[in-house]
Amino acid sequence: MRQLLDTNVFIETAEGNAQASAALLRAAAFEWAGFSVISRVEALGFPKLGADEEANLLRLFGQFVEVQVTPQVIEQTIQLKRALRIKTPDALIAATALVERAELVTRNVGDFQHIPGLTVVDVGGL
DSSP code of 55? Predict the structure, then answer.
């Protein structure tokens, strides 16, 4: 089984959220677990991010596979954007999960549950 971790799992783990931390630990045991490069951009892109927070996030990201935006991810993103009202970062993350044939682990289930073919795992439900 494969899992792609949404940005909020990393941010909430860094903030000390027990459910997000458990989801991260659970994903580490899977045959493959990764995240979209977009998640790194989102998590590290906050203007007021401190050096300690950045180091902690980088440590968390370093435990998983970073998936780049490939031509297949771009094409899948375009199809999602055409078919659904979805923000571009969410479309890129969902497209990455679809291309990688991975479940998407997130706290924001509502942002993704309407995407055909995408299996969404609720951090709160683990």
Answer: H
Instruction: Give the other-Cβ count within 10 Å of 102's Cβ.
Output: 24
Would you give the DSSP letter of residue 52?
A: H
Provide the CB-side half-sphere exposure for 56 (13 A, CA). 13
Number of domains in the chain: 1
Low-confidence ranges of the chain (pLDDT < 70): 126
What is the C-alpha to C-alpha distance for residues 10 and 23, in angstroms, rounded to an integer?
Answer: 10
Q: Which CATH number does the domain housing residue 55 bear?
A: 3.40.50.1010
Range of the domain at 47: 2-125
Instruction: Dump pLDDT digits (tens) for 10-28.
Output: 999 999 999 999 999 999 9
Residue 50 amino acid letter: G
Closest CA to 15 of 63, 49, 65, 62: 49
